[in-house]
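Sample 1 of the test manifest.
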Amino acid sequence: MITSRTQVTDMIQSAKILKGIKWSQIAEVVGQSKEWSTAACLGQMAMTKQQAEAVGELLELTDEAIAWLQIVPYKGSLPTEVPTDPLIYRWYELVNVYGTTLKELIHEEFGDGIMSAIDFSMDLQRENDPKGDRVSVVMSGKFLPYKMY
Amino acid sequence: MITSRTQVTDMIQSAKILKGIKWSQIAEVVGQSKEWSTAACLGQMAMTKQQAEAVGELLELTDEAIAWLQIVPYKGSLPTEVPTDPLIYRWYELVNVYGTTLKELIHEEFGDGIMSAIDFSMDLQRENDPKGDRVSVVMSGKFLPYKMY
Amino acid sequence: MITSRTQVTDMIQSAKILKGIKWSQIAEVVGQSKEWSTAACLGQMAMTKQQAEAVGELLELTDEAIAWLQIVPYKGSLPTEVPTDPLIYRWYELVNVYGTTLKELIHEEFGDGIMSAIDFSMDLQRENDPKGDRVSVVMSGKFLPYKMY
Amino acid sequence: MITSRTQVTDMIQSAKILKGIKWSQIAEVVGQSKEWSTAACLGQMAMTKQQAEAVGELLELTDEAIAWLQIVPYKGSLPTEVPTDPLIYRWYELVNVYGTTLKELIHEEFGDGIMSAIDFSMDLQRENDPKGDRVSVVMSGKFLPYKMY
Amino acid sequence: MITSRTQVTDMIQSAKILKGIKWSQIAEVVGQSKEWSTAACLGQMAMTKQQAEAVGELLELTDEAIAWLQIVPYKGSLPTEVPTDPLIYRWYELVNVYGTTLKELIHEEFGDGIMSAIDFSMDLQRENDPKGDRVSVVMSGKFLPYKMY
Amino acid sequence: MITSRTQVTDMIQSAKILKGIKWSQIAEVVGQSKEWSTAACLGQMAMTKQQAEAVGELLELTDEAIAWLQIVPYKGSLPTEVPTDPLIYRWYELVNVYGTTLKELIHEEFGDGIMSAIDFSMDLQRENDPKGDRVSVVMSGKFLPYKMY
Amino acid sequence: MITSRTQVTDMIQSAKILKGIKWSQIAEVVGQSKEWSTAACLGQMAMTKQQAEAVGELLELTDEAIAWLQIVPYKGSLPTEVPTDPLIYRWYELVNVYGTTLKELIHEEFGDGIMSAIDFSMDLQRENDPKGDRVSVVMSGKFLPYKMY
Amino acid sequence: MITSRTQVTDMIQSAKILKGIKWSQIAEVVGQSKEWSTAACLGQMAMTKQQAEAVGELLELTDEAIAWLQIVPYKGSLPTEVPTDPLIYRWYELVNVYGTTLKELIHEEFGDGIMSAIDFSMDLQRENDPKGDRVSVVMSGKFLPYKMY
Amino acid sequence: MITSRTQVTDMIQSAKILKGIKWSQIAEVVGQSKEWSTAACLGQMAMTKQQAEAVGELLELTDEAIAWLQIVPYKGSLPTEVPTDPLIYRWYELVNVYGTTLKELIHEEFGDGIMSAIDFSMDLQRENDPKGDRVSVVMSGKFLPYKMY
Amino acid sequence: MITSRTQVTDMIQSAKILKGIKWSQIAEVVGQSKEWSTAACLGQMAMTKQQAEAVGELLELTDEAIAWLQIVPYKGSLPTEVPTDPLIYRWYELVNVYGTTLKELIHEEFGDGIMSAIDFSMDLQRENDPKGDRVSVVMSGKFLPYKMY
């Protein structure tokens, strides 16, 4: 019996490693970007029936697991408030160092409000550079203004 | 007597509000992007003598404050591990929800290593959109591979 | 010299107590609901020039304080992650006890997404009841769906 | 052997997903609102014998699980002090941003005391809106005054 | 300018020590029990105008301080989640060791609900005992049942 | 193999629920108050051989479990520093709100020292009241003075 | 105006350093052991009038400070839960490493109960040793047994 | 398969309880003090082959467990930063209350440095006393001075 | 089914202990330094196919485990923010005591930037010394300067 | 009046910045390495009378500040458990990632014990490298073995 979405994430990771499948291949059968598809597999998004079945077929998941993939998960993918993994920590560091800068510049441009993390998309690309290739990430979120009432 | 860089940040915020100056105006006298210049004013980067004096003149800071602007600050701009401010929290949420996704995709593309938060630049723009304007942020960091030894 | 918005909140609280002014009176000069106006005075919303000047006149604030009222504040009104004040704790308890219930029911009705805390309004009323009057709070937030990309 | 109420919640979630049953259907057999019934299934309320048996029949639970549903549970439905799930976090954010506002307005209207989280009810509805449907939540709690003694 | 209730508590403690006044004497002029009166002085209860003026006269407080005594304070009297002071820690230890026992026994006697901490009174007495005097504390709180809705 | 006292507490809870036995019945076979007996079953006190065997017989525990009941347990019955369960939280709130009051009044009456949480007893009773029954708890602990040396 | 015992500790430390006085000299005028006297000066014990005046004379404290020395302080001398100072950390490490050992051995010898930290004394001595001198600390606390009731 | 030293500690506790063996008996076969032997069994020290085999024989442990007893363990015996068990907490309280006192007196006697928690021994004894027996603990650690370089 | 890299670390530790193999022997078959090889086995580095197979053969791991060794792990090897193990704590203490010193000296020599923890190597050696052998650790990390943009 | 060593550190930082003095110049007048001298100025080591006076003269400190420099400080130079400054965080990351590796390798070479953080020295150098200069840090600490007793 599956009793949490985390178990399904574990099954996916395990099958992906044993079969040597890549996230980009999973994204192809899902029919969405590699960013969204990976997040969905890792328990951060809910799939449609069709998407879940496609992933289930590719990774040979059980019907129960496929049913769980269609449920909205309890989100949050990190085990600690401050991430210990160096790659993920760098992103936390960016928030920590540049957080107030982002706040000031968004308010200067848009006024009081936030950049949505829901109506949001992300695109991660390799940027070739003779001094060493770079990771380029474009994040785009709708600006949502606070309203008076 | 100034005894911490935080006091200088307070002075800058105070002067900026009273004089009604914008971050983009400060960036102009600093001669760098608005992202870097704002971060520098908020105590996250060290300025050159020339940059510090330009900011000092614009905001009428004391010589002591100008000297402090040239010192490498103790970085980290947030008062709590999990930020309480909604705009900044959304960025923390992105790390929390997409952290493992970023990790998987960067490793799939580049192998083991990290995206640098030091050899890094950031560009924040308004993206016009009929369904509501968007905040677009491009982040670019050098990929640094772990080495065997 | 005022160096943080918290100082302005302190000034407002102090003047309000000494003058015996009510939040509903402040809301009247602000021209918005009592909920929004109180939040704005307590450092959670930014006022327009007109609103700030009206509050400043009523409470005899300095020009510097009035300038600060128009700046978007660093939000978050509580000194600890788990609030110690019994009235505020009860709200935290509601989130703690009913959090997963709210999540299940909103997803059942709307699918994956969130209820906005930005495009949001709140109305607090006394509900007369022979068994003891009740506090009635209506909260209304736009539903924001996660999008595939 | 069942050794904690959490196991029963897991069983309910698992059966509900496999059978494709909705919370509103469960509420119907429980004979209470969808808010109370969901909270009870998620381990936050104790059911009567009749309610527990109705849920047990619908979801094919064991007798042991049905016995546990009638026990007052150890409440609190969230795994961390600050919730990581974006939907639930927005509620925590409301407490964080509006906490002192709620405190001020309830005290202005009622004097010293609290809004009960026990003698409390909640009603969650979809509010149709051309600019995007809204989630509307009405919360009603008895006001309990502090007494001198 | 007084900007927080804590400053008034400090003034009261300071004046009480310099004048050598006892809590029981303060309770007398307040006209309530020593438990309630002490809690009120320490920033946990709001006084009436008459009570505040009586305390103000006894301890020679300023008019501003007397005004603050009539405001509902932000409650919570301890500087850390787990108290470090041995006397107060023992009470935390009782909650930690006997917490689940209190829960089981109250539910066995009353069903699901809580013992109110608002409609509550407390009486602390010396209990003479040849083996060493004892501190006896009687706590009485209304039982509040959870209601179905 | 039983490897921690927590497992025995789980067995007791499980058997008690399945058999429909009350804490007062357990207290009877233990031969002590319901408060002490419940605490002992929940892993906070060590039983004598006779007491453990009586509980073991009533709840049909294994010999290994009965052996564990006679061992002094690692005490502390709560999973988090600040309890999330509303009934238990109210007790934490009392310590938080009244902690400094208890400290002041005990010191005023007894001088420097503490109220023992070891040489301690507790009695919980229903107090009939036309305005709603009350939970009454009498706590009695020996006063232990600090000594100079 | 002195508003907390911490200020008096600061005054004592400051005067002691400027005058070059030793704790053993202070203990002499207090008339108690160096361990108790130091703890009292550092805000962990309450002095008698005579003791406070003796310390006050030696260190030239104000009358207000001398009054505060006779008040039972809010105890706990460390700024963080886990001490950062290496000397004090070693003591925390001893509790962390040997905590369960102390528990097992005290229970084996005495049964269920604790070693008092109130009816307690401590003696710190230099132990000459050719391989390097040692710090020897003798701690003696009354055993307090848990009682059934 | 044993995958952590904690499992071996569990096995030892379980066997010790079922066989009714005392720590002093274990110390005898180990051939070291009861303090060291207990700490070693509880996963805080590494045993020699001979010691591990002696304990293994007495408690009928498997060869795998005996192999693990000879490995240096990851030390730290407590589940939380601040211990919840009252006996162990009292030791944490001593560090909290007397920590700065220990620091001051060791520095006054020895200069800058620490008392070693590694080159350290401990002896716990019952001290008979007509007013109630006492727990006496002698701790002896080498003083290690900071060196200039 | 293996569902996390931690399980593989457990298998390695278990096999290493039962077979009596040393880290230096593992490093030999891996063909890298003992520092890198140990970190890789403990789940902090990703191995090549060849390295993973060599370790798998030496320790008789399953094919599934060998597949997991080639995956980039979620890094961070400690169970708590502040390590409880005395050997590891001493390293945390060095960061705590010397952290600001390292910062000042690196900035004085190199300007604003960091010492890389990725382009990094470490060499641990025994240093013979008549006063007691020493642990000598050489750490070498590339300096990465912050850049203006 | 100086009431804490932190104030002296602030004075030193302030004077050093205004006068444009380097840590290496301070080390020269102190007569110890730049590592030790910087740590001493930053409140982590105690100076001799002669060293304190030399620093005092160079930075024009008051006699009171010079007296404080000779007192053993309360050590620990970081404001949070996990450092937010990127340079210092990298060192914390090294402990987090390599902590268990350091533990395994030191135990393999030396047996049970620790590397001293007290009988310890550190040397930081620039290492020229065509691919980018490196920071090289040699740390040397005496090995201290656990002893049986």
